Amino acid sequence: MRSIVVLISGGGSNLQAIIDHIKAEKLDVRISLVLSNREDAYGLKRAEKAGIPTAIIDHTQFESRELFDQAMAKEIDRYNPELIVMAGFMRILSHGFAEHYAGKMINIHPALLPAYKGLHTHRRALADKAVHHGATVHFVTPELDSGASIVQGKVPVLAGDNEESLQSRVHRIEHVIYPTVVEWFAKDRLAYLDGQAYLDDKPLNQPVIIEQASDQH
């Protein structure tokens, strides 16, 4: 069984989606550790309820991003995970940390990359009157939100949407696509080589698209 470590900073809804898939025997991985940079992250309670070991490393206690990341890596490497899953981890990673886990770390970003890198993605999509929005699962590289994309979950932007309603719809598709990617990893279907994502030994020149029907509210 493959071992993963999940990094969180907040509510941990994507962590819960992965936990639920494991409990339902849809996903054959073991979450060896849930690590948070915030002691008040609700995702820690989700992990504890599921009997998963947790750790808190407070980034405010370190003089530099590099020292914080070194402390994180030391804790993560105790568990020797085969995959690092960033699930709402709200810290920009140092170059050294990203390189240390190159090809072994994935992130989910609430936008259809390369559109809307960074923060406030839902607000920006609404301001642009985008027809579609969504989320992207991608490999992590030192450049923010720029690693090879694996899957995109696509949702419609509906008339009357605000940030909250659009975010809710994006969350629902996130909870589908993130466990899907972890499942591909667990079944040895997913690989990363020289900056390129591969699925079933074929290069993913474009991410796999999973679309939510427009009548789903």
Q: What this model shows, in words?
A:
With 217 residues, this protein is α/β, with parallel strands linked by helices. The protein has two domains: 1-101, Formyl transferase, N-terminal domain (Rossmann fold, 3-Layer(aba) Sandwich), CATH 3.40.50; 107-136 and 151-217, Formyl transferase, N-terminal domain (Rossmann fold), CATH 3.40.50. The protein has helices at 13-23, 42-49, 65-77, 95-100, 121-127, 163-186, and strands at 2-8, 29-36, 54-56, 83-86, 105-109, 132-139, 149-156, 190-193, 196-199, 202-203, 208-211. The chain has an eight-stranded mixed β-sheet with strand order 3-2-1-4-5-6-7-11, sandwiched between helices. Strands 8-9-10 form a three-stranded antiparallel β-sheet. Helix 2 links the parallel strand 2 and strand 3. The relative contact order is 0.15.
Write the layout of secondary structure elements.
Layout: E1 2-8, H1 13-23, E2 29-36, H2 42-49, E3 54-56, H3 65-77, E4 83-86, H4 95-100, E5 105-109, H5 121-127, E6 132-139, E7 149-156, H6 163-186, E8 190-193, E9 196-199, E10 202-203, E11 208-211
Helix pairs in contact: 1-6
In percent terms, what proportion of residues is strand?
25-35%
Q: Give the uncertain stretches in residue-range form.
A: none
Q: Could you say how many structural domains there are in total?
A: 2
Q: For this structure, what is the CATH class of the largest domain?
A: Alpha Beta
How far the N terminus sits from the C terminus, by CA atoms, comes to 36 Å
Number of helices: 6
Helix content: 25-40%
* Biggest sheet overview: 8 strands, mixed
CATH superfamily of the largest domain: Formyl transferase, N-terminal domain
Number of strands: 11
